Amino acid sequence: MITAISAIAVFLLLITVHELGHFLAAKAVGIRVLEFAVGMGPAIFKKQKGETLYSVRILPIGGYCKMEGEDEASADDAAFGNKSAWKRLVTLVAGAFMNIVTGFFVLLLMASLMPAVLTPVVSTVLPDSPAAQVGLAVGDRIVGVNGTRINVYHDYQFEMSRYSGGEIALEYKRNGVLHTVNLVPMKEDDRSIIGFTTAIKELTFTSRISEAFYTAIFDAKYVIVSLGDLMTGKVSVRDMSGPAGIVQAIGMSAKEGFLNLLWLTALITINLGIFNLLPIPALDGGRVLFILIELISRRKIPPEKEGMIHFVGFVLLIALMIFATTNDIGRIFGGFFGGA
User: Fold this and answer.
1) Is 171 helix (H, G, I), strand (E, B) or coil?
2) Is 19 among the catalytic positions?
């Protein structure tokens, strides 16, 4: 029951804010919105206000913002397809933007409930460790690993988790002065470590905002790097998760505590925002790509042809989702029978 309620709440929130982004942007640039719906399936509540029908539908698994002339030709001046390219771009990108902003506010709520967090600041240095050998001292703040900026502890943890051997360049600040050292991490319990513990910092009003902001940036980086690893083959497609895997993860996070659920919600909504901007037909990013082609070629692609390409993209995305779901089922039932 906890899993079902948590999953429904998370999916409904994330899809609603995404569609709300499209809705608000469309209204702002003068595009006619025919319907804004929360949920899918038959309507259980409807209200017409002006040109827009507002509805709540029986299945709490999605929602949509239906705009005039979005997928077909229309003679209406307020139709999506008849607006200037920049107005269409703003409307398309607004959904992903709202997801990312929502991720920040979820992380801010999470930070407001936490008294303290780990920081990339040296608390103690282990004797005879690489950290001790290069002269790291208590109070040093790690600000870079191999050229990657370190803002929050998650950044440092992530960079170390990707270490594959050899020397690394470590940047740190001591009394406001930047220092750079080169070292080779050592192994401990199958982990690569430099040899220091990190300090815990009590959060204030301003530091909570900063922590949420930089954690949102980290989540976005994590999603982008993970997508890159998937496309380059560093991560197997067998590791992809679909709806079943996401529901399972949400349920596990909810059982582990509200803070874990908030963190996963933030990661999923930022993931949704970034994924939607990929230049893949049927996604917002695919539609953005067509507008960019239009701006470069100065020729508008007929809505019917673009709609057909998006339909093919939609079919391929459904096939990908089915594939990911089979991965989920294999992991879920494989773990079940393995545990027996």
Assistant:
1) strand
2) yes
Token pair for 277:
């901007």
Nearest-angstrom CA–CA distance, 329 and 286: 29
Do 92 and 120 lie in one domain? The reply is: no
Distance, CA of 292 to CA of 314 (rounded, Å): 20
Name which residue leads in pLDDT, 111 or 304: 111
Same domain, 43 and 123: no
Q: Are 92 and 22 in contact (CB under 8 A)?
A: yes
pLDDT-derived band at 340 (thresholds 50, 70, 90) equals very low
Q: Is the predicted pLDDT of residue 331 greater than 70, yes or no? A: no
Go through the chain and tell me how many residues it has: 340
Domain contains 213: no
Q: Determine which one of 19, 159, 171, 306 is catalytic.
A: 19
Q: Rounded to whole angstroms, how far apart are CA atoms 119 and 197? A: 10
Residue whose structure tokens are 């740190």: 172
Alpha helices in the chain (DSSP H): 2-29, 85-112, 130-133, 153-161, 205-232, 243-256, 258-276, 284-297, 303-339
Number of domains comprising the chain: 2
280 is written with which tokens?
């893949």
pLDDT at position 339, please? 42
Which domain CATH number covers 138?
Answer: 2.30.42.10
Distances, alpha carbon 238 to alpha carbons 1, 195, 223, 230, 268, in Å: 28, 34, 17, 10, 19
Within this chain, do residues 124 and 103 fall inside the same structural domain, yes or no? no
Amino acid at 202: E
Q: Are residues 23 and 103 located together in one domain of the fold?
A: yes
| DSSP notation for 301-334 | PPHHHHHHHHHHHHHHHHHHHHHHHHHHHHHHHH
Tell me the pTM.
0.84
Instruction: Name every residue whose Cβ is closer than 8 Å to that of residue 312 and which is 6 or more positions away in sequence.
Output: 281
Give me the residues paired with residue 33 across strands: 67
Q: Which domain holds residue 163?
A: 116-202
Tens of pLDDT, residue by residue over 261-303, are: 899 899 999 999 999 999 988 899 999 999 999 999 888 887 7
Task: Examine the domain organization and report whether 100 and 130 are in the same domain.
Answer: no
